[in-house]
Design brief:
There is one protein chain. Strand 3 and strand 4 form a beta hairpin. The chain has a four-stranded antiparallel beta sheet, with no helix packed on it. Strands 6-7-9 form a three-stranded antiparallel beta sheet, with no helix packed on it. A two-stranded antiparallel sheet has the order 3-4. The chain is globular. With 104 residues, it is mainly beta. It has a single domain, classed as Roll (Archaeosine Trna-guanine Transglycosylase, Chain: A, domain 4). The protein is built from no helices and nine strands. The mean pLDDT is 90.
């Protein structure tokens, strides 16, 4: 879109998602910098709001999702490169109060 460079962040080359540092319109091409020597152009499929994640590679249902070098959850469905990653396709694996059984 008009040659604008959208800012994103990724901390580790192994991350499967990048984070938008500003709102990114749907169908925008962004350059994700994995290392000093390696970047990749990705077209985001939906609007990505500031602070939200998008996939930097295809992620299969059940695969771990890595952000900032840490597992943040598992894919609850297949996620295409450039797709918004949020509660509709990511299931958290930490602090799941609904997964704790009650002792009576």
């Amino acid at each position: 879109m008009n040659g604008k460079v959208f800012r994103t962040i990724i901390m580790k080359p192994s991350d499967s998602v990048a984070v938008a540092l500003e709102n990114i319109p749907a169908n925008s091409k962004v350059a994700v910098q994995f290392t000093l020597e390696h970047s990749k152009d990705i077209t985001v499929q939906q609007e990505i709001s500031f602070g939200h994640k998008f996939a930097v590679q295809p992620i299969k249902k059940g695969d771990e999702i890595i952000k900032y070098g840490e597992v943040i959850g598992k894919a609850s469905s297949d996620i295409a490169e450039g797709e918004h990653v949020h509660v509709h396709n990511l299931e958290g694996v930490r602090g799941r109060g609904d997964k704790i059984g009650s002792a009576k």
